[in-house]
From TrEMBL:
The keyword Transferase applies. Residues 1-34 are annotated as: Disordered. This is Reverse transcriptase domain-containing protein. Coiled coil: none annotated. It comes from Tanacetum cinerariifolium. Residues 126-219 form the Retrotransposon gag domain. The lineage of its organism: Eukaryota, Viridiplantae, Streptophyta, Embryophyta, Tracheophyta. Keywords: Nucleotidyltransferase, RNA-directed DNA polymerase, Transferase. One of its GO terms (molecular function) is RNA-directed DNA polymerase activity.
């Protein structure tokens, strides 16, 4: 009689796999909630009296401007240098131009040379001395330790005292420029250049800049410039136009100064003659 082999019997998988795997079963039953026990910690406030806690803090005096470490062995800002910074301070008034102040500050600090001391570090140290109290207060409102380079400082300074609305107004003044009734060519050109210098980021090309000025002049000055150019001024190259305007305005200005000087001289002589006449009359009556 043939006996059935166990190897030929079908293998039946258990319906519950967890019961056949003791490791998984033990792992599932071994999970326990983890409780973090906090140990009491004494804080600084717990160790201080109320009077000590209510006192004003004596730390946290960091400023917005971060001055880099100076590696030079002997370095000291002289009092005379600081005094120079305070002679022409920027107040931040409406008519004050921050671009002019930056130009002046760059000109002064460009002459300061210290061995192993970068120039931008000197600028960062000196700039606050060049500001009056109101302007200095505005700059100190910047986030602590937020200014690390000279470029950062200039950007924040210009944005604070030269807002976009001011740029728009000055650009409109340049575009709508007109020579005044009693204004000479020199005076008109000088006023026009002041507007451009007050707003160096105006974005106008040299072509637009010169064309606007030429068309803003009265017919007499336009004819004078055309005569100097030999043709219509706008038919010359841009650089030639600029040179002609500069030279023509200087000639007119020197003539005006001569006339004014002559008039003042005549007035002075007239006054002297009058004084002599009065003195002679007084002597004759004695």
């Amino acid at each position: 009689m043939r006996t059935r082999s166990f190897s030929n019997l079908p293998v039946v998988s258990p319906s519950n796999p967890s019961t056949s795997n003791p490791k998984r079963r033990n792992r599932r039953h071994s999970k326990q909630p983890f409780i973090l026990e906090e140990s009491p910690v004494d804080t600084m406030a717990d160790q201080c009296t109320m009077a000590e806690l209510l006192r004003a803090p004596t730390e946290g005096y960091a400023e917005a401007i971060v001055v880099p470490s100076i590696l030079a062995d002997q370095f000291e800002l002289k009092h005379s240098l600081i005094n120079i910074m305070t002679t022409d301070q920027f107040f931040g008034f409406e008519m004050d131009n921050p671009h002019d102040h930056i130009r002046w500050f760059n000109k002064i600090t460009s002459t300061i040379k210290y061995k192993d001391v970068p120039n931008f570090a000197i600028k960062l140290m000196l700039f606050l001395f060049s500001l009056a109290r109101t302007a200095r207060r505005c700059l100190k409102k910047e986030p602590l330790r937020s200014i690390h380079t000279w470029e950062d400082l200039v950007s924040k300074f210009i944005n604070e005292f030269f807002p976009p609305s001011r740029t728009t107004n000055l650009c409109n003044e340049i575009s709508n420029f007109q020579q005044r009734f009693d204004e000479s060519l020199y005076e008109a050109w000088d006023r026009y250049k002041d507007l451009r210098r007050a707003c160096p980021h105006h974005g106008f090309t040299e072509l637009h800049y010169l064309d606007t000025f030429y068309n803003a002049l009265n017919p007499a000055n336009q004819d004078s410039l055309n005569a100097t150019a030999g043709v219509n001024l706008l038919e010359r190259r841009t650089q030639d136009v600029l040179t002609i305007i500069e030279n023509k305005s200087k000639v007119r200005n020197s003539r005006n100064k001569s006339v004014v000087s002559h008039v003042k001289s005549c007035d002075a002589n007239s006054n002297s003659s009058s004084e002599i006449t009065k003195l002679t009359h007084a002597v004759n009556q004695q």
